[in-house]
Design a protein that fits this description.
8-stranded antiparallel β-sheet, 3 helices, 31% strand, alpha+beta, single chain, globular
């Protein structure tokens, strides 16, 4: 990832897992034992961080390629683009955050899209997170 996103990141390591935070984009690895090579498990795009309005939260390599990220992104914007491209999303139960968060699943890509529903995590309708899953619906 350093080749693509540069060396401006934060690591959250433990003996068996590693999370690498590149601003808005995070990558995760696991291993069964120390000394065994890391295996990538998933990534996430923490779109909710855009609500802080700090352009530095978006990795410089991403800003250079896609331009400024001036604020939050709504689920309506994202879902309209996905419909236009023929990418279906299916709403799935999200009981852990009932009333505060909604979840949508894209089965072919194994992607979960989290959307603010209440007010605790931001403004209703805002995109909160996009995360991959190697195991299916989390």
């Amino acid at each position: 990832m350093a080749e693509l996103l540069g060396d401006d990141f934060g690591d959250n390591p433990s003996k068996y897992s590693l999370g690498r935070d590149h601003g808005m984009v995070e990558f995760f690895w696991q291993r069964p034992d120390p000394g065994v090579p890391w295996a990538g498990t998933h990534f996430s795009v923490q779109a909710h961080r855009l609500r802080y309005g700090d352009p530095e939260l978006v990795n410089p390599a991403i800003r250079a390629r896609y331009g400024a990220f001036p604020g939050t992104v709504t689920f309506a914007e994202v879902s309209a683009l996905l419909v236009e491209r023929g990418v279906p999303l299916r709403e799935v139960p999200y009981p852990a955050e009932a009333g505060e968060m909604r979840a949508y699943w894209q089965p072919e890509a194994h992607i979960m899209v989290s959307v603010v529903e209440g007010s605790y995590y931001g403004r209703a309708g805002d995109l909160y997170r996009v995360a991959s899953s190697s195991t299916g619906i989390p």
